[in-house]
């Protein structure tokens, strides 16, 4: 395969080329749910980011606090759809008792 043919397959004129998408603002949140009587200590993290290929990706991670947990990624053509799912997931988690983690003081007395 000649070098020119390679450029036509993957270059900017290619039908497979995608327009790079920039996210207008960062979307990240980390929330936790704990209940000592039930031995429950869970976390849930959400982030919207751009992929290397210009797609919008909503990454979510969840599990027991102190572990890596599980991860899932959702890919979108536009930011609006990703933000819509982000907000829907946040509403569901808040209704189940998740809340932002409390700030821990770096200085101890």
UniProtKB/TrEMBL annotation:
WGR domain residues: 26-109
A Pfam family: WGR
UniProt GO molecular function: DNA binding
Swiss-Prot/TrEMBL keywords: DNA-binding
Protein name: DNA-binding WGR domain protein
Source species of the chain: Neorhizobium huautlense
């Amino acid at each position: 395969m000649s070098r020119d043919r390679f450029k036509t397959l993957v270059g900017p004129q290619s039908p497979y080329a995608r327009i790079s998408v920039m996210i207008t603002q960062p979307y990240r949140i980390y929330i936790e749910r704990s209940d000592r009587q039930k031995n429950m200590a869970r976390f849930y993290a959400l982030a919207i980011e751009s992929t290397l290929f210009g797609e919008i990706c909503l990454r979510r991670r969840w599990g027991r606090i102190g572990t890596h947990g599980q991860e899932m990624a959702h890919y979108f053509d536009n930011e609006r759809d990703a933000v819509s799912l982000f907000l829907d997931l946040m509403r569901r988690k808040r209704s189940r008792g998740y809340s932002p983690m409390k700030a821990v003081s770096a200085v101890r007395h």
